[in-house]
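Obj.: predict assembly geometry.
Materials: sequence records (below).
Method: joint structure prediction, all chains together.
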Amino acid sequence: MLLVDINSYFATLLQQENPKLRGKPVVIVKDLGRTCVIAASKEAKKMGVKTGCNIVRARQLAPQLIEMKAEFDLYLSATKKLSSLFLNLAPKVEVYSLDEAFIDVSDCRQNLYPDLKKLGVKIQKLIKNNLGEWVTANVGIGPNRLLAKMAAEIAPKESVFEIDQHNRDAILATVGFEDVCGIGIRLASKLARMNVFHPYQIRFYALEDLEPFFGPFWSRELLKIAYGKEPHHFRLLNDPGFLQQKMKSVSRSITLWDLVHDQDEIRCVLYNLAQEVIYKVRRMGMSGRRISISLYGSDHQTWRYAQTFQCFIDHRRQLFDFIEKNLSQHWQQQFAPIKFKISLKLLKSNKVITPSLLPCWQKHEAIETAMDQITDKYGLFTIRSGRLLDKKKLIQPEVTGFLGDKDYQFNFR
Amino acid sequence: MYQIIHETIRIAGIFDKLQFKPVWFIWKNKRFIIKKITLVSKLKEGSIEKIIYSVQVGSDVYRLDYFPQEKEWFLESIWIDD
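Observations (raw structure tokens):
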């Protein structure tokens, strides 16, 4: 198993596009004026700037800092190019995020790639030839996804590194949890309270000792990681049933520039997000049964409302009516929101759902289908609900770094 | 930062290994010879496709947008040093 991880992807790709940015500390923010650094170039990282860092702190660390707006469409285009490149090498390729892909060569290794390190170097050259000379990648090699990803994380930049049976235990005994995929900050700090700082140390605990602290699921997962075995979230990628039915919900969220005090504007933002959610769901031939709305204030205030329905929902009108009704009934205007989120959950393929026979539903379905056809041809929001007519600047769709909607982006767009 | 221009241009190029590579373009009656194509990105909005050619002319960087269905070329933006 190989994991290809493009180094500092978002910044590197913009440096590839613009040679004037090369060799300079560059940070990527979602939009100019935003304060959270979502990616940093190799040069900025050397100066101590990290992903998630505040822009003010980043400017202190790197006075010559260049701030760039994220260009998600460019990143997605490059990721698609990489995906097809990798599919020419092996039949099983899993794009894990915008900048990472697993290449499973277990079926073709013996005849095609007896030396995996040479294959790693070949992949690095292919990336340079196709995306450009500035784009570098780490290639991690391991007997499974956990170790391949770990190898890519701990390898020096632009290198190929293999974890095999000879060095596995030594690496598990020295690697920090920040380089172990699946163990987040909370879990790592819980482990630190038990004086466990490396995966190998978990082996000193029996399952019964771990269960009171981590519960039955995570205790088993931690022990698997301790022995370098694939945890649940990676093993799911082998399950064809999971791959077919992995889209269980579609969500869209946005953090605006300012607090929104106007109730009509709050409604309008949610309609805007809902139109994108419902289009994606319909494009994938699915329907959902649970709608949830979340609003977040500037001071950790949160308001959530969710409802599960007996029937499936895949019409814009249904989602809009839900927003309209529940905002007026349940939203007490306790605070002015800045972040908005809407989700349609419990998704199922329309192939296994009996469509409604009610004439009014069928009439609306005809309207929705016509809207889909126009959107398919001319893009989202070319045709939009009358409820969005007053909205001057629409919130456009965007790709996220972890590529949560990769099924949609790769197969339905 | 990139400054938006969005003006139509005339362009000449070559086909190399089944791929079009722009060689020069004319904007405001001036010919710009492309030194290097630094990045090619394919985007899609609905059924409308767009190819962005990021190119270097001298030391300047330009984004050229090509719409294959309409066969139209635009000088979309120019990199301006802050």
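Conclusions so far: The mean pLDDT of chain B is 93.
To do: check interface contacts against the pulldown list.
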